[in-house]
Dolichyldiphosphatase (Mytilinidion resinicola), 232 residues
Amino acid sequence: MEEYAPLASLSLTHVHYNPADRLSYVCAWLALVPQGLCIVYATLIWSNREIEILLMFTGQMACEGVNWGLKRLIKEERPREMHGKGYGMPSSHAQFVTFFSLTLTMFLLFRHAPHPTETHTPFSFFQRLLLSIAALISAAAVAVSRIYLNYHTPKQVLVGCTAGAIFAILWFGFTTYLRRAGWVDWGLDTYIAREFRMRDLVVEEDLVDSGWARWEDRRLRRRALANGKKRS
């Protein structure tokens, strides 16, 4: 009988949980939030070509690189109850969602200044504040789920949150410098950026309003044209 080499497991979306515990089941889904956010990043970058989203995603990946380095520098094992692979300090999930939620919060409160259009009224500052609080609470839920599932100790999650918060603040300051120094405008004028149709509208416009005014104008013109043909 032919022998085969032992197979390995791709643990990117492999989560252990207690099937008899409903909260454990919810936590298992929360563990997939970082993967879901990466899909959201890729979709928004491809569909909207916004430089702000690309900068945020670049920072997100750099934060992951920092986590990779910290884990191999500290070399602290995961809780004994968990049989997963890799080091546990700091929690990559906690660091990921903390960076994302805090960066989104700083963008919404300190950089995003949307103006109203004829077809759309953007979120007020209070609404953006509520959205930021919801993002932070969601990040906290993901972080706590790592402790509940015994993937990390409370200390590992706390250090992950701290590392994500520090990196988010540093990255936001860095991108603020890039904007004020004119590097973002310079980058958008390069051949590659223009070939990929990169733009910088989300700072002053809501993503939901992207192209909506043009669509409304086109829809009304088509309706007027169709009514004119019926009358004739």
Notes: The mean pLDDT is 86. The chain has nine helices and no strands. The longest helix spans residues 154-180.
